[in-house]
Structures are given as C-alpha cells and as structure tokens.
Amino acid sequence: MSTLRLITGGIGTGKSLWTVDQLFQLKDKEPDRKVYTDITGIQHTGIISVPADFDWRDAENNSLIVFDEVQYKELFSRHNSKRDQQILDLTTIRKRGIELWVITQRARFLNADVLGLVNEHVHLEKKAKKASKVFIFQEAETTITQKKKMFAFKKYVYQYPEHLYGFYESIKEDAKHHTRSWVHQGIILVLITMAIALIGIGITVYKGYMSSDLAKQQQAAAETAKPSETQNAAQPTQGTTSTQQSSSNSVEKISYNPNRPYQFDYEFQYEVKDKPQLAGCIIFKNECTCYTQQATKLEMTQKDCKRYMSGDRPFNAFRQPSMQQQYQQQQQQQYQQQYPPSDPQKFDAEYAAKVQQAKQQGLI
C-alpha cells in the first residue's frame, strides 16, 4: 500500500534520527528499492540525495521519497494558496506505487490538500535525554491532545540509536545548544518532602522508645519499693483481719506501653466462686457416667456410679438448707425465745398451732 507519511515533533525530538533509522531498516529488507531524500549529509550507498526543489514526479515507480523540513517547500506550505499540479498529482501517487514521507515540526504548517492525503501520522515527543515517545495515527492530527494520545493507533518508547548520528547531519558543527534538564522539579520537591517526613517520623519513634524505657524503669523501681512499704503499713493482728487487709490493699498490676496500646500484661489474682460437686449420673448402653453441676464429666468408677444410680446418695456437705427447713428453724427459735422451757404445755400448743397454719399455707 502506498503511504503518504507525515512525521512531526518538536525541536530535538529525534524526527530525523527516527526517519534515518527507518530508511536503513527498509534498505536492509529491500536493497533494490530506490530511495530519494533531501536529508542533509545522508550517508548510505543505496539512498540517493536530491536537492530541495526535487519534483517527486521525476522519481521511478515503486520508489520512496523523503522530504525534510517540508514546511519550507512552497507547494506544501500552508501559506501557498494556489493549487499546483504537483500537489494535485499526489492524489494519483498510489497508481505508481510511490511512497512519500514528509518531515516537519507541526502538522498545521502544511496546507489542507497535503494533510487530506496523509494516511499515517507519526508524532514524537521528548521524554528523556536519549529517548522519545512515538505516537502513530491513521490520519493527520493538527492538534494532538492527551485524549488523542491515549487512543493512538500505536505508541511506544523510541531509544535513540546513537551509532546513526554519523550517517546524517542533524545540526551544524559550530552550533551551540543548551543542555536541557530532564529531572522534574515537582518530583524533586515530593522527594524532599518525603525525606523530611521520614526524618520527623524517625525522631518521634525514637522519643517514644526512650520515654517507654524510662517509664519501664520507673515502674520497676516503684514495684521494688512496694513490698517493704506494704509490710510496714499493714501488720495484721488476727488471721481473719490480716486476710481482709491484704485483700483490700492488694493492687492489680497492668504493664502498659502507650506506643503499643493493644498489648497489655495483666497480673490479676482471681477468687474461686464455685467448687465441683456431684450433680447426677446417667446410664447409657450399660455405661454409667457422672457429671458436675456445670456438666463436666467426672472420672468416677463404674462401681460408684452404679451405686449412685441405685439410690445410695453420698452426703453433700456443700448443700444449702431448703426454704422449708430454714422456715421451720426460724419459727422454732422464735417460739423458744417467746416461750421458755418453764411453760412447756403452752409452748407445745402454740407451736402445734403455728405448724398447722404453715401447712395450710403450703410453707411446709
């Protein structure tokens, strides 16, 4: 397919270098194809150098023609208002199998007739000292925005082949150029800010660590002094009083570090609230098993377990008196206090009446 390729890019983006690289690759693949170019100082035995006013129509069929700085050619410039026959004949370039590559800085430097025939637009942007980003579009783009770059037909990073610098003349030997810095100042500011923040965090962590060590030392010193102070302050006089005082004066200790608020070291002493007691047994598949009041299995022999199931209950020293027994004891104590043993008949009669009344009320 015949191509009218437009190659654009700012100053120093590597337009000519990229073009020379493409030409050398083409000659390696098609050594017999004729190539005409006006790139200054091109050095290749298979590429023909032509003057700036070369008429592309004089080239052989199936050849390639490359025009550099095409904005200076009057017939291609946007400032040319007349429709020259050479430009009109570009519409028939495909019939002869000729390809035309034109190099300029901006697409808008060319006239509308030329731009309308472009079917491949290669745009280069400088991204590093020795590299450019290449965007390829399928038609001429006069305004290349970030959105258009995103949807480019093809894009890649082009690393400059420095060995090709000597095969063409890019700049004059006595020309002086200022070296451009490719270090982004915004990135430098971000890195400096991050460094300052990291230093501040390091200082804060170090201070917290030192304060934590100091707190631990103070706590250790206080714990060392507490036993002697406690012994001098609380001397028990009786066994029961001593137990109560040590219980009331005891301090529950917690090791706490503010730098690690979720890590606690508890030193608590818990009081026993309940004791295991035999609550019942069950026989299932000829195996007898006994449990505590909290449904904990007891390691009891089969003999004792079956003895329990036979109705022989052991005495329970932990069992509390029932409400009926407590009521009877209270009533008996009250009557004994009200009616001393000196009048046993009156006491028996009154007591019998109270017992009968309690039975009627269902208390006993």
From TrEMBL:
InterPro entries recorded? P-loop_NTPase
Give start-end positions of Low complexity composition bias.
235-248, 324-339
Arranged from A to Z, the UniProt key words for this protein are:
Membrane, Transmembrane, Transmembrane helix
Q: Which Gene3D superfamilies match?
A: P-loop containing nucleotide triphosphate hydrolases
Q: Tell me the segments the record calls region Disordered.
A: 220-256, 324-345
Q: Where are the transmembrane segments?
A: 182-206
Question: Domain of life, per the record?
Answer: Bacteria
The name of this protein is Uncharacterized protein
